[in-house]
C-alpha cells in the first residue's frame, strides 16, 4: 500500500515545482534587455503600430496581469501565441519536440551501453591494463566540453571521412539514426565517464562484500556470481546517478542541437531567447522542467522496484 501511495502522490509534489519554475522563468525572461515587438517589426516601425502589436499580445499589461493570463491559458491547455512564429506556442513545441526526444533516447541508449561495458570490463580487470585504459577514458571524458567534442567529431567523421552528415535530422527512422549518431555520441562521451566511474567503484565494493565471499566458498562460478548478484546489486546507486545525469542531458541538448543544427527544443530555446519571444521561452522551459521532473519520478519508481528494502 505504501508503494501505491508513493506512485499516486509523488506526481502531485511536482505542482509547486512547476509553479516556481514558471514564476522564475517569467521574471528572468522579462529582465532581458530588448523589446520583442521591436525585434519583430524592426527599428523603423511606427510607434502606433508598435503599441497596437503590444496590446494584441497583452504586453502593455502589468507584469502581474501578464503572468496570471499565462497561468489562465496554461490551465486551459494553451500557452499563448508565439510573437515571432505567429502560431500557438504548443504547435511550435510539438513540431520541435520529436527530434529532441529521439536524440535524448538515442543518447541515453549509447550512454548506458558504453557505461555498462566499460565499468564491467574495468571492474573485472581491476588494476590491469583494461582498467587503466577505462580510467584514462573517464578522466579525459570529464574534461572535454560538449561543444568542442561535437566540433571535433564533425571535422573528423563528417568533413574529413564523410561518414555522417554535418547537420540536420534526416528522413525516416534510419535517416534519423544516421543523422543523429554524432550528436548522440557527443552526449554519450560527455555523460558516460561519470556513470562508468560510479558503477566501477560500486562493482568493486560489491565484489568484496561478505555475501560474495560466502558464495565463492560454496563453489559458485565467478561469472554466475557477477551477473546474478554483483551487477544487479550495483545498479541502484547508478540508476540514481543516471537520473541526475539525464537531467543534465536535457539541458545539454541546447548546446548539442545548436552545434549540429538539429531542429529541436534546444535550438528553439536559443532562437526564442535571442528574439525575445517571451511566451515561447516560457513554454520551452516548462517542457524541459516537466521532463526533468518526470525523469526523477521514473528513477524513484525504478529504485523502489529494484530495491525492496526502500520504504517510500
What does this molecule look like?
This protein is mainly α. Helix 8 packs across helix 10 (181-207). The protein is 77% helix and 0% strand.
Task: Put the structure in a nutshell.
Helix content is 77%, strand content 0%. The protein is mainly α and 312 residues long.
Which structural category do the helix and sheet elements fall into? mainly alpha
Query: Quick one: how many beta strands?
Result: 0
What's the Cα radius of gyration?
24 Å
Strand content: under 5%
Shape: elongated
Return the average pLDDT rounded to an integer: 76
Largest sheet: none
- Helical residue percent band: over 70%
Poorly predicted runs: none
Count of alpha/pi helices: 14
Distance between the termini: 10 Å
Q: Helix and strand succession?
A: HHHHHHHHHHHHHH
Tag the structure with descriptive keywords.
14 helices, 312 residues, elongated
Mind sketching the topology for me?
Elements: H1 2-9, H2 14-30, H3 36-41, H4 47-56, H5 63-75, H6 89-124, H7 129-142, H8 146-160, H9 172-179, H10 181-207, H11 210-217, H12 222-259, H13 265-274, H14 278-306
Helix pairs in contact: 2-14, 6-7, 6-10, 6-12, 6-14, 7-10, 8-10, 8-12, 10-12, 12-13, 12-14, 13-14
Amino acid at each position: 500500500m505504501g508503494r501505491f501511495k508513493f506512485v499516486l502522490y509523488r506526481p502531485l509534489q511536482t505542482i509547486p515545482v512547476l509553479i516556481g519554475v514558471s514564476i522564475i522563468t517569467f521574471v528572468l525572461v522579462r529582465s532581458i534587455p530588448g523589446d520583442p515587438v521591436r525585434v519583430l517589426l524592426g527599428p523603423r516601425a511606427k510607434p502606433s503600430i508598435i503599441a497596437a502589436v503590444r496590446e494584441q499580445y497583452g504586453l502593455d499589461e502589468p507584469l502581474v496581469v501578464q503572468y496570471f493570463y499565462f497561468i489562465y491559458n496554461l490551465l486551459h491547455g494553451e500557452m499563448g501565441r508565439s510573437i515571432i512564429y505567429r502560431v500557438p506556442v504548443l504547435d511550435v513545441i510539438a513540431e520541435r519536440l520529436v527530434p529532441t526526444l529521439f536524440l535524448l533516447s538515442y543518447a541515453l541508449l549509447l550512454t548506458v551501453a558504453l557505461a555498462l561495458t566499460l565499468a564491467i570490463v574495468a571492474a573485472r580487470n581491476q588494476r590491469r591494463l583494461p582498467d587503466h585504459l577505462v580510467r584514462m577514458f573517464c578522466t579525459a571524458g570529464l574534461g572535454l566540453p560538449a561543444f568542442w567534442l561535437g566540433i571535433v567529431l564533425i571535422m573528423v567523421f563528417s568533413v574529413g571521412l564523410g561518414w555522417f552528415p554535418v547537420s540536420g535530422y534526416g528522413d525516416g527512422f534510419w535517416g534519423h539514426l544516421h543523422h543523429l549518431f554524432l550528436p548522440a555520441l557527443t552526449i554519450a562521451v560527455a555523460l558516460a565517464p561519470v556513470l562508468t566511474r560510479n558503477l566501477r567503484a560500486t562493482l568493486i565494493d560489491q565484489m568484496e562484500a561478505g555475501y560474495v565471499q560466502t558464495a565463492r566458498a560454496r563453489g559458485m562460478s565467478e561469472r554466475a556470481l557477477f551477473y546474478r548478484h554483483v551487477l544487479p546489486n550495483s545498479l541502484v546507486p547508478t540508476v540514481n546517478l543516471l537520473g541526475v545525469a539525464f537531467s543534465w542531458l536535457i539541458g545539454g541538448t541546447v548546446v548539442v542541437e545548436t552545434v549540429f543544427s538539429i531542429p529541436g527544443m534546444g535550438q528553439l530555446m536559443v532562437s526564442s531567447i535571442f528574439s525575445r519571444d517571451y511566451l515561447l521561452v516560457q513554454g520551452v522551459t516548462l517542457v524541459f522542467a516537466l521532463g526533468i521532473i518526470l525523469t526523477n519520478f521514473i528513477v524513484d519508481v525504478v529504485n523502489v522496484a529494484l530495491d525492496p528494502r526502500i520504504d517510500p
